[in-house]
Amino acid sequence: MGRRELKLLESRRLLTLLLAGVFLWSLSTVDWRGPLIHTGGLGAFLDFLASLFPPELSPGFLGLALSASWKTLAYAVAGITLAVLIGFPLGVIASGSVSGSPRMGLGLAVAVRLILAAMRSIHELVWAVLFVAAFGLSSMTVILALALPYGGILGRIYGELFNQVPEGPLRALRASGASPFRVLLYGRLPMALPDMLGYTFYRLECAIRSAAIMSFVGIRGLGYEIQLSLHDLLFDEVWTLLLFMVGMVVLVDMWSSRVRRSLVS
Amino acid sequence: MSMKKSDANHLLVATGISKSFGRVQALAPLSLTISQGERVALAGPSGSGKTTLLYLLAGIIQPDAGELLLAGQDLARQRPGKEKAGLVGLIHQQYDLVPHLSVVHNVLAGRLGQWSLFRSMISLVWPQDRQVAEEALAQMGIADKIHERTSHLSGGEQQRVAIARLMVQGSRVILADEPVSSLDPVRADDILEILTALAGGSGKTLIASIHSPSLMRKHFTRVIGLREGRLEFDVPAAEVTDRALERLYDLDQSEAAVWGGGN
Predict the structure, then answer these.
(1) Which is higher by pLDDT, A76 or A100?
(2) A181 contacts in B (CB within 8 Å)?
(3) What is the residue range of A134's domain?
(4) Which residues of A touch B (CB under 8 A)?
């Protein structure tokens, strides 16, 4: 036992040295001779910061920002809703908590986990590029491109949450005669629900960001407008749009806390 | 499977059952017979194997060796389900209710073994067999809590919900793991009155782990003493002596040495 501990300690120190060494070596790849920040850069950056005070607040533009935000939010919500519908049943199977025979259940769980991993390992932008070929630049593309990777993420997390609930109440349900599916319905699901909900709301925030980025590709939304304003160097407009983005995420965050609190009481 | 005439009343027959967890032997080979309608108190210090024995009798864990027959059938071969639930029910020390569900759903969980899949799902929205739950809760004195979220109830109230669930389940043998250990004497007496009335009313069998000699004599017909996984004595409740219990619970030499005294 002592020997094993020693080896572990050595390898930890070794790893730290290794990482520190790699970092220092990476610094040597930077060209320290010339200026670190490109000459026009600092000025342009300060210009950009200054445009925040004040941002573009004309009613016409605010209306545009609002409608662009609404579109982005709609894509995010639609994408996440579909992701939940995909991720929930797959998560149940992946957790292995409901199965016919134990061996078949395990095999199925492993297969589903692989599918979920594949879904989420492809970034939503890549999915979007793939779907543009099939559906063109349409809402369908954006929603599916969000639903698949997020479905993979949600499915995996839901599966783990189902398995992390306290064993005691599940055992008691089983002993009262409940089948594995009824144990899931009356035990796992109610106990995992608060965390599932919290995590889903967090992913909704991420989906808003993803939807905004995807609209850079050409589908209308916040990202599209940001790109247009950036192109024209209208930084105050860019700031307005960014503030709308932040505002949306903050609102979703507040909504999420209220829902979670109402679940408890 | 031969059934002698004298076995007719024997509901639970354990022959040489033992259980170990890793290197720790929780229960040494033990044999006992319990008849229908008995009220048995399990006595013994912590770690004596009372909980292990209760879990074995409930069929939640399986013995490493030996045989356990319940109503003539091998308990180890019974899969959890409607039949087993109708035979044994256990009130856990921690009650093991689902905190996030409302009381009515926890109580009606006792019915899950009997309901169809459709009914089980519908009941989450429209509680089925509602009157059954209402009656059980009324008998426990907490009928007004029926729609409250279970985690909002006090410990004592949650225990009553657990008992109500057992009533709805309707098992022939009622097992209780330390049902009154954390209660004051008055409430302990009250809960045992409820449990014995529940058992006595319908000829059910009650087996519970109890520490207090007075409660043992008042509410039970038989006392089984366990110590370090071994059966020390098995006597009618009227015959259990304070001396025997003292010896059962005595700190042995190794434990006494820590406190620097005792002999």
Answers:
(1) A76
(2) 117
(3) 57-264
(4) 168-169, 171-179, 181-182, 185-187, 190-191, 193-194, 265
User: Do B32 and B234 touch, CB atoms closer than 8 A?
Assistant: yes
Q: Is residue A47 one of the residues assigned to a domain?
A: no
Using CA atoms, how far residue B250 sits from A189, B44, B230, B233, B260, in Å, is 45, 10, 15, 15, 15
A193: in domain: yes
Give the pLDDT score at B103.
92
pLDDT band at B263 (very low <50, low <70, confident <90, very high): very low
User: Can you give the pLDDT at residue B5?
Assistant: 42
Quick one: closest CA in B to A165, which residue? B98
CATH of the domain at A191: 1.10.3720.10
Average pLDDT over residues B86-110: 90
pLDDT tens profile A42-96: 888 888 888 888 888 888 889 999 999 999 999 999 999 999 999 999 999 988 8
Nearest-CA distance B153 → chain A (Å): 12
In a domain, A18, yes or no: no
pTM of the predicted protein model: 0.79
In a domain, A29, yes or no: no
ipTM for the complex shown: 0.81
Helices (H), A28-56: 39-50
Q: pLDDT tens across A233-265, in order?
A: 888 899 999 999 999 999 999 998 898 888 776
Give the total number of structural domains in chain A. 1
Contact flag A173-B120 (C-beta cutoff 8 Å)? no
pLDDT at A133: 85
CB–CB of A169 and B96 under 8 A?
yes
- DSSP string spanning chain B? ----GGGGGEEEEEEEEEEEETTEEEEEEEEEEEETT-EEEEE--TTSSHHHHHHHHTTSS--SEEEEEETTEEGGGPPSSHHHHHHEEEE-TT----TTSBHHHHHHGGGTTTS-HHHHHHHTTS-TTHHHHHHHHHHHT-GGGTTSBGGGS-HHHHHHHHHHHHHHHT-SEEEESSTTTTS-HHHHHHHHHHHHHHHHHTT-EEEEE---HHHHHHH-SEEEEEETTEEEEEEEGGG--HHHHHHHH---HHHHHHTT---
